[in-house]
Design brief:
single chain, 377 residues, alpha+beta, 60s Ribosomal Protein L30, Chain: A, Phosphoribosyl-aminoimidazole Synthetase, Chain A, domain 2, 2 domains, 12 strands, globular
């Protein structure tokens, strides 16, 4: 790598700014809902929300749709699909959690150049495990063979959740005194893989060889391939394909316990929840348009992030905009309840703790590393 020009997401094929402009154009072209306000199926306004909400009597239904992305290309290169169903589930149900919903059902969509019974069996087993972890029903799905359109396997899905109407987590009650609690990630999760694949091209790293760094990290395990020798060190491919963490346990359990008056806080003390996906730490700006955040005590990073940073010569801000850097989800909590909530979460997911707080710096994210500043998502 050149000393003066490191890798970034845009040069690897994904321009986050352009993507944001395209999404804004799409939203701006959409018409009003066919369902009038107050009727079943009518949309519920949730600016910046990670999932969509619709009216359903005394309750709300929540929907989220997403895919695995180019992480699938690494899985295809290795012929290892054991984790991708979990990735697909996580990218969806973790978004539902952010609006206060309990996920209940999931449907998948598989597009492929040609059907392969062996691959489809592996995907089915992975999706079954994902349903177990997320505690949802696989309610159906679709498999499409699209030669000439699809060149490689693609997997996406849609998750359905529900919540009482008064229980929506909207971010509107966030104040400058709120505390930010971080939940540890399992690694890269399912974002930033265009940059990862570009780095693999540049370095020539072997996905099947032992990872070129110490893979140990206090708050995660590496899911080994079935073909791996049990006493071998984890391969680079195993580290990069480690499945995305599903946060139903503990976050949904926290919401339900607090809703029932049996948790570490009152239901209204949890003001916002952010899934740290594409856009990295700038996702915090989606919680409330009038509040900023400072992360003074970031969670420890799994070692693969330092490997990417060093060998790709990736700048600090670019790393924090592309990857989760060890924090897969963050909760904005009333300061009076933050210690109790943090302790409760840590008892269920070790490594969870207070990482920062809201600030008066309107709509800006700052960090212990002064190079990391975001004022737009």
């Amino acid at each position: 790598m050149s000393d003066d020009k490191g890798l970034d997401y845009a040069s690897s094929g994904v321009d986050i700014d352009l993507e944001g402009e395209a999404i804004s154009s799409l939203i701006g072209s959409l018409g009003a809902s066919a369902r009038p306000p107050g009727t079943v199926g009518a949309p519920v306004d949730l600016p910046g929300g990670f999932g969509g909400l619709v009216e359903f009597g005394d309750n709300l239904l929540a929907l989220a749709t997403d895919g695995v992305g180019s992480k699938l290309q690494l899985a295809t290169a290795l012929g290892e699909y054991g984790g991708v169903g979990i990735d697909c589930m996580a990218m969806n149900v973790n978004d539902l959690i952010c609006v206060g919903a309990e996920p209940i059902a999931f449907v998948d969509y598989i597009a492929t150049p040609e059907p392969d019974p062996v691959v489809h069996a592996a995907l089915g087993a992975s999706l079954a495990e994902a349903c177990r972890i997320a505690r949802v029903t696989l309610a159906g799905g679709e498999t499409a063979s699209l030669p000439g359109i699809v060149k490689e396997l693609d997997l996406s899905g849609t998750a359905l959740g529900w919540l009482p109407k008064e229980a929506a987590v909207t971010g509107e009650n966030i104040t400058e005194s709120d505390v930010l609690i971080g939940l540890p990630s399992n690694g890269i999760h399912s974002n930033g893989y265009s940059l990862v694949r570009r780095l693999l091209e540049v370095t020539g790293a072997d996905l099947r060889a032992a990872a070129p760094f110490d893979t140990s990290h206090a708050h995660r395990d590496i899911t080994r391939f079935a073909s791996s020798a049990p006493d071998s060190d984890p391969s680079l491919g195993e580290v990069l394909l480690n499945p995305t963490r599903i946060y139903v346990d503990p976050v949904v359990d926290l919401l339900l316990a607090c809703r029932a008056g049996e948790g570490p806080c009152q239901e209204g003390d949890i003001h916002g929840i952010a899934h740290i996906t594409g856009g990295g730490l700038s996702n915090l700006l989606r919680l409330n348009p009038h509040v900023g955040w400072h992360i003074q005590n970031p969670l420890p990073e799994p070692p693969e992030f330092d490997w990417i940073r060093q060998h790709g010569n990736v700048e600090a801000r670019e790393m924090a905009r592309t990857f989760n850097l060890g924090m897969g989800m963050a909760l904005a909590v009333d300061s009076a309840a933050s210690d109790a909530v943090s302790d409760w979460l840590n008892s269920r997911l070790p490594g969870s703790r207070v990482v920062g707080h809201a600030t008066g710096e309107s709509h800006t994210v700052t960090h212990a590393d002064e190079r990391i500043v975001f004022d737009t998502y």
